[in-house]
Amino acid sequence: MNTGPLFVIGCPRSGTTLLLDLLAGTRAFGYVSTSGARRDVDESLHGRTRIYDTPVLGGALYIHRARILGAAARLGPLGRFARRRLPSAIEPWEFWEDLIPAFRPEWGDGPAVDPSADALDDETVERTRAVVDDLLRRQRRSVLLSKYTDFPRIELMRAIFPSARFVHIRRDAHAVANSYAVEIESGRFGTWEHREWWAAEWPESARDHWRRNGETMLGFAAHNRNRLVAVIDRAVDDDPGIIDVTYEALAADPEATLARILDFAGVTTRTDLARLARSRRVADTNERWRTKRSAQEAALLDEILTPEEH
Asked: Of 62, 175, 183, 184, which shows the fewest CB atoms inside 10 Å?
């Protein structure tokens, strides 16, 4: 039975956060949470996820924690207490960057390519394994669940965790590009600041197309989505340690999709799976972009996301 980490990967805005949250709610995995996003925090914080192990109450707390935190936020000190006591699984960039210097390429100091294992040394590998083992011990789990977006980092993570497995989640290209652009336009993603770094690794035809069409954020998001999906596709092709799922399947039948992933990961715990899947009623929002974009913007997306057209 596989007991290596399970990593959720994919292009930004493909549903990785939703999938992470649902898998964490099955109580099959340990994970980095909002209580301990960095390695140098008080390590006892990693154990706070065990509140969800409480019989009967624990499952309900996980499922309804967003509502609880929303209500508590209006009550001042009680809200801060609730946030500390009801942690959620997160995309732990700081945790991995602190442990693995090569995890994120340096902006502008090299090409925007999938980080490899070349920069790893034995000390980094041993330290990372030890920290993860300690996190799992504190949470009383045997399998780590984590996620990250953009590059797949499969070679890098397998050099540290040889039995690691990966779940690649895909989503409708137009929905991803639109949502990616919304995050860039809002300033929540810092990708735009480094747009030339990213674009340097696109095919020349994509760079030319982006510049001819005004170097817009929407055009950037669509072209970068194409590039990242191509990189991921090459990395996951015919790899038995990787499973593909879709956002659309997750929305249509979350329980069946989660059960398939748990079987692939080699874990048998199904606590709260059915109730969690029922409570989260995942909506398929793929068509929402059509009401947010002008006819000209929709035409631009169609052109970029249909490769044979340019």
From this structure: 183
- Sign of CA pseudo-dihedral 21, 27, 30, 35: positive
Residue 244 parent element (H or E): strand 242-246
* C-alpha dihedral sign at 167, 168, 171, 177: positive
Distance CA 293, CA 289 (A): 6
Q: 109 is written with which tokens?
A: 């100091």
Instruction: Let me know the angle formed at the C-alpha of 234 by 198 and 208, rounded to the nearest 5 degrees.
Output: 35
Coil/strand/helix, residue 7: strand
SS3 of residue 136 by DSSP: helix
DSSP-derived letter for residue 216 is: -
Q: Please count the helices (runs of H) and the strands (runs of E) in the chain.
A: 15, 5
Confirm if 16 and 169 have CB atoms less than 8 A apart.
yes
Q: Side-chain half-sphere of 211: how many Cα atoms within 13 Å?
A: 10
Contact 23, 261 (CB under 8 A): yes
pLDDT tens track of the chain, all 310 residues?
Answer: 446 899 999 999 999 999 998 898 887 889 998 765 554 444 555 666 767 777 766 677 777 777 776 776 676 766 666 666 677 788 999 999 999 999 998 888 889 999 999 989 999 999 999 999 999 988 888 899 999 999 999 999 999 999 999 999 999 999 999 999 999 999 999 899 999 999 999 999 999 999 999 999 999 999 999 999 999 999 999 899 999 999 999 988 888 899 999 999 988 776 667 767 766 667 778 888 888 899 999 999 999 998 644 3
CB count within 10 Å of CB 145 equals: 23
Find out whether 202 and 211 touch, Cβ atoms under 8 Å: no
- Best CA proximity match to 99, nearest among 74, 121, 77, 114: 121
Q: Which amino acid is at 301?
A: L
